Structure formats: C-alpha cells, structure tokens
Amino acid sequence: MENRVRVIGAGLAGCEAAYQLSRRGVSVTLCEMKPQKYTPAHVSPSYAELVCSNSLRSDALTNAVGLLKEEMRRLGSLIMEAADSTRVEAGSALAVDRVKFSEYVTQKIRSDPNIEVSEGEVTSLGDGVTVVATGPLTSDAFSDYLGRYLGESYLSFFDASSPIVDAQTLDMDKIYARSRYDKGEASYLNCPMTKEEYETFYNALISASLAPLHDFDEREQKINVFEGCMPVEEMARRGTDTLRYGNLKPVGLPDPKTGKEPYAVVQLRRENDEGTMYNLVGFQTHLTFGEQKRVFSLIPGLENAVFLRYGVMHRNTFMDSPKLLTPSYSLRRNENIFFAGQMTGVEGYVESASSGLVAGVCAAMKAQGRDAPDFTPDTVIGSLAHYISDPNVYFFQPMNANFGLITPLENRVKGGKRAKYEAYAARSLEKIEELRKLI
C-alpha cells in the first residue's frame, strides 16, 4: 500500500489529521476548496477558520472539555499548540485570537515537507487511505456524493453564531468587568439589566424578524437546531424567564455599583488579544442584521455599539455514525476511509479537532500496515470516539465532551462532584501516558 494519505478539508479536524499523519512519517495530500470556493460562513483563505466563537471553553481538568484539551496536548495536538500560542484572556476558559490562530495552523501545515496542499473542490473519493474532514458545511456536490456512497440519509440542522461589537463603542459607565463568582481574571464585560430593561429587551427579541434561509439548502424544509448552539430568540420563546436562567443568568455577577445581583446580565467576551472586539456570549442568532442592531442596542451599555460582525445561521450536516463508523472513525465497510470533525457527530471545536487526532493517528497506522490502538473510553477523547460508533445508540444526536460518556469509576469517590471529576482526570491522564507509548 502506498504510504500516502489524502485528507479532504483543512478545517480543525482536517489539519489535525494531516499533522498527525505527517508526524508519523506519512506523506499527505491535503485537499481544500478555499480560496477557489467558500462556504456561506467562511471568509478567510487560512485553514482551521473559527466561525461560531473564539472560545474553546473551560480549561479546568474538572471539566470534561478542559480534560480533553489536556489529553490532546499530551498527544501532541497541533490545534492545542496553536490555541495555547494565540490565547487571549477569558477567565477560566481558553479563548483565542481567531485570526492569529488560523494563521498559526496555516503556517505549520504549509511549511510541513510531508504535506502537499491541493486546492480545489473534491467531489468524490479516490483509492487508498483517506480522511474525510469536510466539516459542517460540506459542499453540496460532495455531500450528495457521500450520501450516495454511504447509502444513508443525512440529518441537517442549523448552527448560529454571535455578533461582535467594537470595544471602543461600549458605554463603560454602565458595563462592569467581572468573571462569574470572581473565578479567574475579570475578563468578561457584564451588561446589567433591571426588570424593566429586561422585559423591554425580551419583548423586542421574541417579536423581531428572522433572516431568510435562501443562502443555504433550500431543500431543507425543517430546521433542526442543536441545543448547544440554539439561537437566542428561539431560547427566549420558551418562556419569559428562560434566558434569565440560561444565557443571561446574573448569579455570581453582582454589580459593583449596587453590591447586588442584577435582574439579568448580558456577558461580553474578548474576541482578540488586543481587546478591541467583544462577542455577545450565548447570542447566536438568526435575526436579520437590521433587527440585531435594533434589538441588541436595547442592552444597557450597547446603545451606541458598532457591530463589527452580525450573527449568522449556517447549515450543519452530520452522519448517522453509529451505523457507519468504528471507534477509529473508519467506515465499518471500508476501513481505508476515515471521517473526522462535526460531520461524525462530535460537537464543538475541541471535539472536532480531537476526532481529527484519532482519525489521523489511526489512518497513519493503517497506511503503514499497523494495528491502531484503542482510544479507551476511560479518556474523554476515547469516550467521544466510542459514543459516535456505538451501535446501541438509536436516536443519534451530536454530542459535546462530558463525563457522562466516560467509563464509570470502579470505586465510589468521597468528597463530592469535584473529587469525582479529579479522579476521572487522574485515571484519564494515566491512560493517555500509556497510549502515547503505542502511537
């Protein structure tokens, strides 16, 4: 078998897979349709472009995604190397400068002597070992081809991304800096609302006009929105207080001017290292641009905010992976074909990159005639791989990293939830060290 693997797609998962292949001495052809063709959500020719948010979420080992990131670091992840090199302050979370992050990944890929970049849209699979990582916005032509090739129906839903505002146009007399419960640095900006201000904002939000869907898949008649990225207006329609117990929860964020928690709080998170841009946390939206300006300007402190980017909705397609894939992300009926990224049903930037790491390692071993190791469900990275390939999962939905996916501990841990999660982390990192010796 020729020691060359084709990777289709230069997003987070594809770049991670290509990098892992190269590290193991495998030649790679990385196929990317940008800059010849762009999806509706992408604007940069750089690789690993972040669209929905600049946050990679919690960095704590007692949080599943935080533990996943540490596992990936120890396994030599390119995406984590890039994230750590371009991070911006975000309290206890890991957030990055999106432009610098993509540029970092692009430079690493393009300077790698084992990786050859092939620009242009791919519309079919060839022979040999291949990793498909075309992302949540797989082109129509290739998506149609995969549907025929796999013989399985695709399930579609729409993700939404939050608006970004110019920091210099915020009214800092009304806004205060604070992280929830004062954990980490006060890197979040908080817009406090009184009951009257909240009700005015709420009523405007639920009555605002939505943007048409003509830019995306017109054949899709029903919009299935994943709970982890639900538009703020859809969440609000569930009830008057839904946002106050969700995105706008004021608990742990007392206003220093009053010493009391506001009725509701809108949080802004730094978007870049310089702190010139902030995004509205949890404000993924499908409102028209004009309505976003009108409604979100009702938020105290944002009355005169300049919106550098409005929120958009974009299509996301994922496979019925439990019927199709193995824990190495290879097809059950053709183990030369691997899939990675959100199309496999892992949800989130970090999770997508982790699938690329596993697929890249396993594809390298396949190309070299070696048996791939089992990424055990005792780890977060392995638990995701086993979840998306579990044939006992009948009503498959995308999944974020969480401790509920990991193999339960053998012995009961005293000391509460934190002690339990610490035990998970200790066991996981021990397993990762064992895995490093095999790959």
What value does the Rg take, in angstroms? 22 Å
C-alpha end-to-end distance: 20 Å
Elements, N to C (H/E): EHEEHHEEHEEHEEEEHHEEHEEHEHHH
Helix tally?
Answer: 12
- The CATH homology group name of the largest domain: FAD/NAD(P)-binding domain
* Strand order within the widest beta sheet: 10-11-12-13-9-14
**In this structure, how is the largest beta sheet organized?**
6 strands, antiparallel
The portion of residues forming beta strands comes to 15-25%
What's the domain count? 2
Low-confidence stretches at least 5 residues in length (pLDDT < 50)?
214-222
Instruction: Quickly name the level 1 CATH class of the largest domain.
Output: Alpha Beta
Which topology of the largest domain does CATH recognise?
Answer: FAD/NAD(P)-binding domain
Average predicted confidence as pLDDT: 89
Supply the CATH architecture of the largest domain: 3-Layer(bba) Sandwich
Total number of beta strands: 16
Question: How helix-rich are the residues, as a percent range?
Answer: 25-40%
Envelope shape: globular
Structural class: alpha/beta
Structural commentary:
With 439 residues, the protein is α/β, with parallel strands linked by helices. It folds into 2 domains: 4-154 and 319-436, FAD/NAD(P)-binding domain (3-Layer(bba) Sandwich); 164-314, Elongation Factor Tu (Ef-tu), domain 3 (Beta Barrel). The protein is 30% helix and 16% strand. It contains 12 helices and 16 strands. It has helices at 12-23, 64-74, 78-85, 98-110, 140-150, 195-206, 232-236, 289-296, 321-324, 349-367, 380-388, 416-436; strands at 4-8, 27-32, 55-58, 87-88, 93-96, 115-119, 130-132, 155-160, 164-166, 176-177, 188-193, 264-270, 277-280, 307-309, 313-318, 337-339. A 6-stranded antiparallel sheet has the order 10-11-12-13-9-14. A 5-stranded parallel sheet has the order 6-2-1-7-16, with helices on one face. The longest helix is centred in the C-terminal third of the chain and has 21 residues, at 416-436. The radius of gyration is 22 Å and the shape is globular. It starts with a strand and ends with a helix.
